Amino acid sequence: MRRLIGLSLLLALTACAADLRYDLILSVAADGALIGEATVTGIAPGDWTEAVFRLYPAATGADRLALRAVSVDGEMRPWETVEPTVAVVPLSARAGETFSVSFAFEGRVPELEDAGGYGIFARTAHSMTLAQAYPMLAPWKGEWLVEPAFPWGDAVVAPVADYRVIVEVPEGWTVVTSGREMEVGQRLYEAQGDNLREMMIVLLSGYEAQTASLAGVRLRSLAMPGHRTAGAAALAVAYDALQVYQELLGPCPFPELDLVEVPLLGVAGVEYPGLILAGTSYYERYSYERFVFPMIFAHEAAHQWWYAEVGTNQVAEPWADEALATYTSGLYFAAQGRFQEILRYWEDGYRRARIRNREATVASPLSAFPGGEGYGGIVYSGGALFLHEVRTRMGDGAFFQALRRYRDEFRWDIASGGDLLRILEEESPVPLQDLYRRWLGR
Ligand SMILES: [Zn+2]
Fold this sequence. Notes:
Distance between the termini: 53 Å
Number of domains: 3
Structural class: alpha+beta
Shape: globular
Strand order of the largest sheet: 5-4-8-2-1-12-15-14
Number of strands: 23
Radius of gyration: 21 Å
Largest sheet: 8 strands, mixed
Oligomer: single chain
Number of helices: 11
Bound molecules: zinc ion
């Protein structure tokens, strides 16, 4: 593959924190052509005869990310493409044994207008968002957990891993990622991060950075020069939100959080470990819209705890992280003296969404919201209202104790909604069953 062989020398082995490790090399051209190599190394948690990898960008076009070669422990292997986003690689690893799968892959990052979904695998004149731009190992829970990738909602269900990435960019572009970045050569960046559920990579051109730091977390807001004021406001919201969350939930799971303005499609913000994408249109409207703007950063910052650190199955049980993230964002608004405002927003949103989608409930899977209809109002706002009733019933001490315990027990793991409900119930001084029945139908 062109030029990549030389780059691989930069990837020296280092100690890892998670049981899974990705070594990635990506080369991105100005026209969006992408070529890459990935080595995924780990310890098999069960007896494996195959490993399942996801190619999420292929959900909107098979040529957007496709495998070209696969090798296992250094030997070339055939693989089976079950559908564009699912590749099955035969291998033999017993529980506790080390495995290593290497890939050569290529793809094409479409222009934003053609991107589909939320526009998170897309390019414009100033930004390239490379969400899930490499083969990702599916989670193993006694069997492979493979959910469909819908064009609405968040598709990724993945185990955390340690990452080392080398990215080659076109002239004039820089790199922001979920990890810590370093410029290591001409048009060449290296990034590293531990315990990441995915490695988000964003290429930027012509952006300005503003920074702040808080209790060991470095915050960075990246925006276009014309959006300096909104960029500063984003930084201030994230700073205040992290302060509130750290006090109630414990330390932020990552040493860095980047807030990146990019044009998105049909969504205000998207969360990644250590990185938040926020829609350009909200920066443009910042001067006369002061409610949704802070909500983006308060909500996506909360996902650092609920999604990035405590993972869930976002496809089967989106409420398990979205309701928690939305409710946690309400804690930021409460600290701003605006809790009644956000509560009304949730109530209105939930009521309206129930009219638009009469079938779905707070606990419905992503598939119950065709085209995303009613999704935010029912799962996010309805889910937050449910949690507010739970908190009111339990009392603050027991409620936050339960959230901290849930976090401790499922840190870097994949929890279920049932795990959260069980811990809330165990920590609650009073029964919660009637609330579970009424809101979640369980
Ligand atoms: Zn969310």
